[in-house]
Amino acid sequence: SFWLNRTTIDDLSPSSWIQLRNSTTTVVQINLQRASGDVEVYLADQNANSDTETYLRLVDGVNTWSHYIFTVDTSDMAHATPANRVADITIFKNGTQVSASTATSYNSFPSVYNSLRVALDDTLAMQDLIIWKKTLSSTDASRLYNDNIWLNPTSISASQINDWYKFGYEPDFLGLDISEGDPLSGLNLAPYI
User: Fold this and answer.
1) Which of 65, 93, 101, 104 gets the highest tally of CB atoms within 10 A of its CB?
2) For residues 31 and 124, is the Cβ–Cβ distance under 8 A?
3) More confident of the two residues 136 and 176
């Protein structure tokens, strides 16, 4: 889950994404920046079989914070019958389910991830990128959105937060001898719980 704000519409930059990786292999990638507001979700299994689902006009508006939750249920990726090996993707925006689809084309057990990579174009802002240990429900989505009022995500279930990257907590950078505009690439300084 995460909060996202598109500050301008940039026709030239498709370079914003969130990747869950297994060493050097991308397992899940969410492409966020598309001039049209489309979002692509790419999934891969252990044998590099993959599928990409596209969700039209999911990122809309400019200078508006929206809350997104992407859930991927991979429990059927290990199904004994190849035709039944699927992953169910559900997307919530601002507390409401906006899409559900099934990705296919798998022939092995689900991949695991051991690293996260985030690339944000200068036209996007992100806050509270959270990787959860559980599949968030529609009730969780509504509570996290909280009528567009920030809610501490630990109130949903602190024990179910796997990783929490606190983008947007600039005071946490104080004392690190970093000034506004300094590049952070390679420093691994995103505040993290």
Assistant:
1) 93
2) no
3) 136
Q: Would you say residue 191 has pLDDT above 50?
A: no
- For 80: left if phi > 0, alpha if psi spans -120 to 50, otherwise beta; the answer is alpha
Q: What is the pLDDT of residue 8?
A: 77
Closest of 159, 164, 45 to residue 112, by C-alpha: 45
β-pair type (39-44, 50-55): antiparallel
Q: How far is CA 177 from the centre of its chain?
A: 29
Reported as a single tens digit per residue, the pLDDT across 46-68 is 777 888 888 887 887 788 889 99
Which residue in 101, 104, 102, 100 sits closest to 81, CA to CA?
Answer: 104
What pTM, to 2 d.p., does this model score?
0.81
Torsion of CA 80, 77, 132, 149, to 10 degrees: -130
CA torsion 165→120→48→90, rounded to 10°? 70
Tell me how far apart the alpha carbons of residues 41 and 29 are, in angstroms, rounded to a whole number: 6
The dihedrals phi and psi of 124, each to the nearest 5 degrees, come to -125, 150
Rounded to an integer, what distance in angstroms lies between the CA atom of residue 85 and that of residue 83? 6
From CA 123, how far away is CA 184, in angstroms rounded?
Answer: 17
- Taking CA atoms, 95 is separated from 1, 30, 136, 144, in Å, by 11, 19, 11, 7
